[in-house]
Amino acid sequence: MPVARKYAYFDHAAVAPLPSPTSEAIQGYAKTGEASGDVHWLQWSAGVRQLRRTAAELIHAAPDEIALVNSTTQGLNIVASGFPWKAGDNVILPDNEFPSNSLPWKQLNAQGVETRTAKSSPEGSLSLESIGELIDDRTRLIAISWVGFASGFRIDVEELCKLAHSKGVLVCLDAIQGLGAFPLNVKETKVDFLCADGHKWMLGPEGAGILYIAQQHWNLLRPVGVGWGSLESGGFTPGSEKLKETPAVYEGGTTNMPGMLGLGASLQTLVDLGAGQPNSPVAAAIMENVQSIESACKASDLTVHLPAEEHRSGIVGITWPEARDDTDYMEARKALLEHDVVTSVRGGRLRVATHAYNNQDDIDRLVHGLHAFRSRN
């Protein structure tokens, strides 16, 4: 991670820095395209096929269950717009969801589909009971983030799916704030749909992500966004109408080739490090960093906002008594940048999002920078 040469980078919940192999893959595409045009297109296409296999390996899916998308938002909209809704159906989502996982579902109101919101706690935690009490015989789907973008609250995906499936309800998981940081086995959890852009914890470029659709649901969704890439024949035969039967049918247009090649390199790096395994050393390092951040902040009169231990993620919220609103935290963020420490502000807190390669020196720089800011204010 070349970024670590200068920065203590704690903004993985926004946009991650790129690993060297990812940068090399993107630059390699650009240099080859500059010198040769599309002469090596088949080689690039093979790289994209490998990405599909690597993404499947990360989440323990079959490669054919993976569609490549440009964003989490695109993936969510594919599910929302392709689902066979009927007037009177309802979908459940938390009341503190990121807009990308609320707007696609709320747009269904025009079709007579009701959106029901499960109430979260002031700290952002969410109980299965608050979801379960909203389910009735017209509930079709629960749309939920694996990890809350502001709170860092990480749901138990397997328990949620057990609850939903016991009521005949499907689960669509926005996994962008967890995938890459924590292992997820879609076969064990039995999640129905999952989508995530690669530019956060998967350490990939923006505009390249994945959509997982469990095989038993391939015929459930209506094909949307179809184009030449959706065709079984490969798209070069005029008049062809036979569509692919796998989720690749949603890859209707031209692929973001450099982005997908970059994401492939990022995911291969994570898979090689064991990020998809139950005893993931990547997840272990992240949780160790979270614990160190908590200890260092408490020793410096900083308030740390974290969920219960079993629901923690790589996101830590930090506040202090004299800060009044987001403006003060934004000023702190600017001051930290003067110390080459990168953070964000979300939910009325300074948001610190640590990955596995961060270390104690990074944490010390974070706390020292905050102490310097508070001293001069």
Q: Can you offer a commentary on this structure?
A:
The protein has 377 residues and is α/β, with parallel strands linked by helices. It folds into 2 domains: 116 residues, Aspartate Aminotransferase, domain 1, CATH 3.90.1150; 253 residues, Aspartate Aminotransferase, domain 2 (3-Layer(aba) Sandwich), CATH 3.40.640. The chain is 36% helix and 15% strand. The strands form 3 sheets. It has a 7-stranded mixed sheet with strand order 2-8-7-6-5-3-4, sandwiched between helices. Strands 9-10-13-12 form a 4-stranded antiparallel sheet, with helices on one face. Strands 1-11 form a two-stranded parallel sheet. Helix 1 runs antiparallel to helix 8 and helix 2 packs across helix 8.
Keywords summarizing the entry:
377 residues, alpha/beta, Aspartate Aminotransferase, domain 1, Aspartate Aminotransferase, domain 2, seven-stranded mixed sheet, four-stranded antiparallel sheet, 13 strands, globular
